[in-house]
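Hi team,

As requested, here is the filled-out complex form for the guanosine-5'-monophosphate run. I kept the field names the same as last time so the parser does not choke. Let me know if anything looks off before we queue the next batch.

— J.
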Amino acid sequence: MDAGAYANDIEQVLLSREEIQGRVAELGARITADYEGLDLLLIGVLKGAFVLMADLSRHIGLPLEFDFMAVSSYGAATQTSGVVRILKDLDHEIAGKHVLLVEDIVDSGLTLSYLLKNLRTRRPASLEVCALMQKNDVQQVPLDIKYRAFDIPPVFVVGYGLDFGERFRNLPFVGTLRPEVYRDAVT
Ligand code: 5GP
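And here is what came back:
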């Protein structure tokens, strides 16, 4: 693993850099084939999706537009609150556009469910989801995630865009944290 300054904080690597890069390339190729002949708008959900957005978009061989939304996340906690707040809305209208929403991780599904409902009211031509990870057995809302890179166990993870207290986003892999990291954060 290449954890650099975070080497002492990581307990286990769940998804290696190579595994992630391989799956992202596969998804990019599928998306390129599925949207052939169409203009596609990628909407990234900040902040967690910025790394996936950057890598995925370079595997999509189509004319692309980009926009971002920011929603409230856990902050420094590791449990979902179920309350979703839009901190930054899209810069442009999406009516009549083919939209692919890019998410880092789906846990309870509450964030994604809220976002999809919200975006549907804006009448896009189509709306699908690409997520790096979905946690097993914790989904509270049934969701159709067309492009999903990995299923993971229901544990709290960091890296490849995902943070704990705004740290760890720049790790090239996804892993779990040593218990001391949580303990030190609350004391
Ligand atoms: P949901 O609404 O599906 O429960 O949670 C979705 C959001 O919570 C994600 O977009 C992400 O910001 C945050 N989240 C969920 N699970 C994790 C996790 O294991 N690690 C981190 N860092 N954030 C998570």
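Two things worth flagging: The chain has one domain: 17-154. The chain is about 25% helix and 30% strand.

Thanks,
J.
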